[in-house]
Design brief:
The radius of gyration is 22 Å and the shape is elongated. The chain has a seven-stranded mixed β-sheet with strand order 1-7-6-5-2-3-4. α2 (50-57) packs across α3. It has helices spanning 27-45, 50-57, 61-68, 76-85, 92-104, 109-112, 117-123, 125-130, 149-163, 169-179, 196-200, 206-219, 266-280, 286-303, and strands at residues 106-108, 133-138, 189-195, 225-230, 244-247, 251-255, 259-263. The chain has 304 residues and is α/β, with parallel strands linked by helices.
Amino acid sequence: MSHSATAPSRRYGSWPFPTVSTRRLSPAKKAAIDLGERLRQLRTSAGFSQRALGQATGWHFTKISRMENGGKSPTEAEIRLWCRLCHAEGEIPDLVAGMRALESMYREHKRQTRAGMRRLVRSSVPLYERTTSFRIYEHNAIPGLFQTADYAEAMLSFWIGFLDTPNDLDDAVRAQQRRQGVVRQQDKRFEVVIEEQALRTLFGTAETQATQLERLLEILELPNVLFGVIPMMVERPCVASVGFWIFDHESVQMETPSAAIEVTRPGEVDLYVRMFDLLASVAVYGESARTLIEATARELRAMN
């Protein structure tokens, strides 16, 4: 793959921000409210009152009210009946995906890591194995698929202490390094964008970070990886508040200090794809990325 110094041509888009009324809600609760609002819009567009739709479905109207207000998650069968009665069958796939996301989108780290970090690392392997196209954005850290063992050890050590999980650091690092095997599979494509800040945020010593950057120089040579860096001093169309990974245009995953969030609703996945394209439009690639990484590595070496 030829890596040009500038990003390939992309479509631009806008990024929605949460409204004031939902800004403080958990991601799962906001998703439940959003799903309910979409059901409400379908009902009102079809000319149904809550009582009328209740009569048509055989449900009590208070059940419909709870669904629309995010107090009750609808089942797939309920969504299909709702859409059929409202003559909106075309909305079924997106609504069903949203309903399924409610059960899996918010996974608390504390609960996931009770058996240690190794289990959490290994839990992602099936997803990585079945994914053929990865789009990865990170703003302050090197993506796990490209981390050296020392860098991973420094990062995982923090999370083990922060989450107060069983200390299985050595096993977790080995599991993480084995997971990186997917990068060498030529049937998979990786499009990666990181901020220059990620090159300069130290996990461990300056020597650990410099060695990590040398690993990135090797990654630049892989034919199935397109690796870009957004320079710190560049005019940009947007800023993403968190890192996120897009898997085959099917799902998006991101992490907060307390939980992992998964997005599967097609319309919402599309927004992350648009955001990724905006970020990639100002990244540098190929020799320009190499020059930036090498210069940062030299600064780190000079710190020792």
